[in-house]
Amino acid sequence: MSTTDRQARFNAALVQAAEAGQLHDAGAALTRSSLWRDALHRFSSNRAAVIASAAFLVMLAFVVIVPLVKSEDPYAVDFSQAYQPPSAAHPFGTDQFGRDLLIRTALGGRLSIEIGFAATIAIMVIGILYGSISGFIGGWVDNALMRFLDALYGLPYLPFAIITLAIFGTVNFWTMVVALTIASWFTTARVMRGQIISLKENDYVRAARAIGARWYRILFRHLLPNTLGIVIVFVFLELPGVILGEAFLSFIGLGINPPKASWGSLAQDGYTAYQTHPYIIVVPSIAIAWLILSAFFVADGLRDALDPRTRVTREA
After folding, report:
1. Do residues 280 and 273 lie in contact, with contact meaning Cβ atoms separated by under 8 Å?
2. How many other CB atoms sit within 10 Å of the CB of residue 8?
3. What is the pLDDT of residue 5?
4. Nearest CA-CA partner of 305 in 56, 41, 51
5. Considering the domain 48-65+98-310 in this protein, what is its CATH number?
6. Residue 26 exposed, middle or buried by CB count within 10 Å (0-12, 13-18, 19+)
């Protein structure tokens, strides 16, 4: 076969491949999947994380929707309906005052989750600012801030929260958030410091410094956005601990004042009558366990999905 024949066959094969869409345009960049697209793919491949996410969303829907569709007054007292077992009229039964536990569990969950998210956001803000400033500045400032943090690590979490509530003298939404935040941001700060120390040695940070970028632009434009993955994971890691802390404080009588209730105060009400009416303590306990376990599995799935070491670049 002559060189001319081979060239003609090669050209024909190129034409067929182009018609079939198997060739990229000359000079066109290959399409690459983004980190977030890869993370979503890996997360959706994690069956436990997907199930936990669905369970987490179901619980959120429960606490939002049930109070909107139920017509019963959650604070109305009717002793004739006291301690009714679960039935069609009252799926979760009633408490010692005849109040429907279904709507009270939903309202209590709404309050517990609101406190949990508010305290978690406060923990993230304080920890991220403290840790990022410490890691970015470095030197003696970093050493002083870390030694101060080491001293704070000696503060016991729940006893210090109890002392904080005693100092305020009143318990409401915001005092509970402060009490749960004040001794909970230390780990977030230390992890964020390590992330910033690692990231600030990258070439894009050196390039930003070389062109005269100010320190706050480097920190907030280049460094903090690259820690978004670890921040999202920490939100779901901190949230269960905060909700469990609020439930413990409410269980020992330091929670939101009646007639409002959280899951912890509902469990405390059930503890006084668990021998004769065990469903009263079982319902909020299952709700707390449901949310905590689902949040932990979601955090575990997010950690695996957002780990850049497992990132796979795929050609479209």
Report:
1. yes
2. 12
3. 60
4. 41
5. 1.10.3720.10
6. exposed
Predicted pLDDT at 29 = 47
The residues spanned by each domain of the chain are 48-65+98-310
Task: Give the residue, 265 or 273, on which the prediction is more confident.
Answer: 265
Q: Any residues with CB less than 8 A from the CB of 282 and at least 6 apart, and which?
A: 270
Give the mean pLDDT of 46-65: 91
* pLDDT score recorded for residue 209: 82
Beta-carbon contacts of residue 120 (< 8 Å; ≥ 6 apart): 235, 238, 239, 242
108: enclosing H helix or E strand: helix 101-137
Q: Taking Cα atoms as reference points, which of 294, 248, 265 lies closest to residue 101?
A: 265
Identify the pLDDT of residue 294.
92
How far the first Cα of the chain sits from its last, in Å, is 37
Burial class (CB in 10 A: 0-12, 13-18, 19+), 162: middle
